[in-house]
Amino acid sequence: MRALVIGGSGQVGAALEKVLVARGHTAVATHHQVARPGTVHLDVRDAAASARVITDVEPDVIFCPAGLTFVDYCEDHPDEAFEANCEAPARAAALAAERGAVFVFFSTEYVFDGRAGPYAEDDPVAPLSVYGRSKLDGERAVMAANVRSLVVRTTVVYGEEPQGKNFIYQLRRRAAAGETSKVPADQRSSPTFNVDLATATVELVEHATHGVVHVAGPSVIDRYAFARMACDVFELDTRLVVPVATADLQQRAARPLNAGLRIDRVRRQITTPLHDPTAGLAAMRATLEGRAVDTTRGHR
Ligand SMILES: NC(=O)c1ccc[n+]([C@@H]2O[C@H](COP(=O)([O-])OP(=O)(O)OC[C@H]3O[C@@H](n4cnc5c(N)ncnc54)[C@H](OP(=O)(O)O)[C@@H]3O)[C@@H](O)[C@H]2O)c1
Q1: Which residue of 6, 146, 153, 265 could cross-link 97, Cys pair, CB 3.0 to 4.6 Å?
Q2: Three-state secondary-structure class, residue 29
Q3: How far apart are CA 247 and CA 258, in angstroms?
């Protein structure tokens, strides 16, 4: 297939581009503010520019990991959040529909309230934050705009990435500087290896899957436990990781505490392994150190 990846400079988009090419597909990736070699500039909020890029690329499938992902910023800037996470993707989904192309939207476990996780796809949604509401509206808007939409909900994504922004990079940077990291011990979710997420999503599209599908790692653990695993794998000083309650962090936006995503549906549909954090973190380390890594094996 011929794919357009809107948001190809982010951690999910960059992984998608690599996986698409490795599986023999053609991919054009876009950036917004942070170019990578070969990426094309696109601000997806610009309707005319989106139409131009889609016309130029002629995709059969558009992957849209682009979005406003700073949860606390979204809380204070709801108009920006809804534009980036709902209105702009919905317009791109409609443009995809006009040419008969599939549209893949990336959403989040933050559509749930975190009282009774882990959650299956059909469990009742009740977002606690502007970010969660903007993503939920985005899910509904892209599905209304394009019957061939696939909505992939995921959470706590980690792995090697071009901008080095994710939780594991932050933890490593702070540890290298001898600084402590306060990590919530009361937020449970399903850490997800970005290579698995990208591979599983591409496989779902290859199988022409539509609707909402959860793609996440198999273990539901709290953020502190995940940080401890990262310390083990990356040989960081565990004393620098300090468990705290989410409330102590005084973040602008509320977080779902008892969350996590059930992955029974995706497991029935694909053969891509979804690694537990120990295996995913080891693969991340190997990639960062330039060692060959086989991510085709592992727990399903
Ligand atoms: N990471 C997670 O743990 C996680 C968890 C749940 C759901 N998700 C969802 O998964 C998706 C991908 O996440 P990620 O971790 O890859 O995020 P990310 O690393 O922050 O990447 C976001 C991407 O969107 C692009 N972008 C931002 N604003 C844009 C705009 N106006 N027009 C076009 N592109 C724009 C960014 O471009 P530049 O960087 O070039 O500006 C970047 O390529 C997001 O939609 C997020 O909500 C992520």
Answers
A1: 146
A2: strand
A3: 14
d(CA 49, CA 143): 22
pLDDT digits (tens, 9 = 90+) for 230-257: 999 999 999 999 999 999 999 999 999 9
pTM of the shown model: 0.97
pLDDT tens digit sequence for 205-223: 999 999 999 999 999 999 9
> Which residue's structure tokens are 């509320």?
254
What's the number of CA atoms in the CB half-sphere (13 Å) around residue 271? 4
What's the first-to-final CA gap in the chain, in angstroms?
26
Domain 2-159+190-220+258-274 indexed as CATH 3.40.50.2300: no
Tokens of 11: 């951690």
| Per-residue confidence band for 299, with pLDDT thresholds at 50, 70 and 90 | very low
CA distance 193 to 215: 10
Ligand 1 centroid–CA 174 distance in Å is 23
Distance of alpha carbon 254 from alpha carbon 1, whole angstroms: 40
Query: Token pair of 193, please?
Result: 């290896």
Average pLDDT of the chain to the nearest whole number: 96
Ligand 1 pocket, Cβ-based, cut-off 6 angstroms: 6-7, 9-13, 31-34, 42-45, 65-67, 69, 84, 106, 108, 154-157, 165
CB 124 within 8 A of CB 82: no
- Tell me how far apart the alpha carbons of residues 136 and 262 are, in angstroms, rounded to a whole number: 18
